């Protein structure tokens, strides 16, 4: 007979591959900063966690400090990661840093936060919505996915974050999404990259998983592997809405999630199916 542990909220989804311990400023990695994340992970049944701070805060990342954290927490896999985006101001330096530290990194997320307006992330809520209202939404989507393909082809990422972030404010294209995204998913497949299932969409105005059901269907057909992630900006958000995610995965028949060590991907069965 199996003993169930009431404190384990989501035994099947044991990983979180998108987290921001530094939040939105440079905060040097230290045990003080990071240990609460590990404690929260343990409490939620998450045994494999990737720290993926924004590349603009790469100055705070300290690989030796991550080694110390690993020594203290042998039961948890702790991955050194980063979220590399397309910020016109900072991503040049970010790319350089990723190249320099490639060997010490386990995992690199690629993302697009900037469209044609170079000084404002389109996903800022609510201000970023102004980049959409009154504009041709199909054109914005095409432009967004073109930028995704650029980062997917950069040879610097293992996985794409929040693949349809462009829907964040609820603006939808007229063209079917499967059509709009096909070339991008084809490239992701041919580059052997993963995409994430991000519960963050559920706490944003769009209130929908990233990516949408329509994109998921095409991605599954192309056998693209998935990570699971919360995009937590505080340890309290780790594994947020994972029960709901497990249900969604079950509906779509997704039974494997992937984890990374030194950019090497491994697919692991979950109980979610
Ligand atoms: Zn992001
Ligand atoms: Zn993020």
Plain-language structure description:
The chain has helices spanning 31-43, 63-72, 91-100, 137-152, 177-190, 213-221, 242-252, and strands at residues 15-16, 48-54, 77-84, 107-110, 159-160, 194-198, 226-229, 256-261, 264-269. With 273 residues, the protein is α/β, with parallel strands linked by helices. 43% of the residues are buried. Residues 1-10 have low confidence and may be disordered. The strands form two sheets. It has a seven-stranded parallel beta sheet. The longest helix has 16 residues, at 137-152. Helix 4 runs parallel beside helix 5 and helix 5 (177-190) runs parallel beside helix 6. It has one domain (15-269): Metal-dependent hydrolases (TIM Barrel). Bound molecules: zinc ion (ZN) (2 copies). One zinc ion (ZN) is lined by residues 18, 20, 83, 231.
What is the secondary structure topology, with strand pairs?
Blueprint: E1 15-16, H1 31-43, E2 48-54, H2 63-72, E3 77-84, H3 91-100, E4 107-110, H4 137-152, E5 159-160, H5 177-190, E6 194-198, H6 213-221, E7 226-229, H7 242-252, E8 256-261, E9 264-269
Parallel strand pairs: 1-2, 2-3, 3-4, 4-5, 5-6, 6-7
Antiparallel strand pairs: 8-9
Helix pairs in contact: 4-5, 5-6
One zinc ion binds at residues 83, 111, 113, 161-162.
């Amino acid at each position: 007979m199996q003993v169930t542990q009431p404190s384990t909220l989501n035994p099947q989804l044991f990983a979180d591959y998108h987290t921001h311990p530094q939040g939105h400023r440079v905060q040097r990695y230290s045990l003080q900063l990071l240990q609460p994340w590990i404690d929260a992970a343990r409490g939620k049944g998450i045994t494999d966690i990737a720290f993926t701070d924004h590349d603009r805060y790469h100055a705070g990342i300290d690989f030796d400090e991550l080694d110390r954290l690993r020594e203290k927490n042998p039961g948890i896999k702790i991955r050194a990661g980063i979220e590399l985006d397309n910020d016109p101001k900072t991503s040049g330096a970010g790319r350089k840093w990723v190249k320099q530290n490639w060997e010490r990194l386990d995992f690199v997320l690629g993302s697009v936060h900037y469209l044609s307006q170079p000084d404002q992330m389109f996903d800022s809520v609510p201000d970023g919505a102004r980049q959409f209202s009154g504009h041709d939404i199909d054109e914005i989507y095409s432009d967004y996915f073109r930028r995704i393909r650029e980062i997917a082809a950069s040879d610097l990422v293992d996985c794409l974050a929040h693949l349809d972030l462009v829907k964040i404010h609820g603006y939808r294209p007229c063209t079917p999404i499967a059509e709009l995204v096909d070339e991008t998913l084809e490239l992701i497949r041919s580059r052997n990259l993963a995409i994430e299932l991000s519960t963050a969409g559920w706490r944003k105005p769009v209130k929908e998983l990233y990516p949408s059901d329509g994109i998921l269907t095409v991605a599954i057909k192309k056998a693209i592997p998935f990570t699971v992630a919360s995009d937590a900006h505080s340890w309290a958000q780790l594994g947020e809405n994972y029960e709901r995610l497990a249900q969604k995965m079950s509906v779509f028949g997704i039974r494997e999630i992937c984890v990374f060590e030194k950019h090497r991907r491994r697919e692991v069965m979950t109980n979610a199916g």
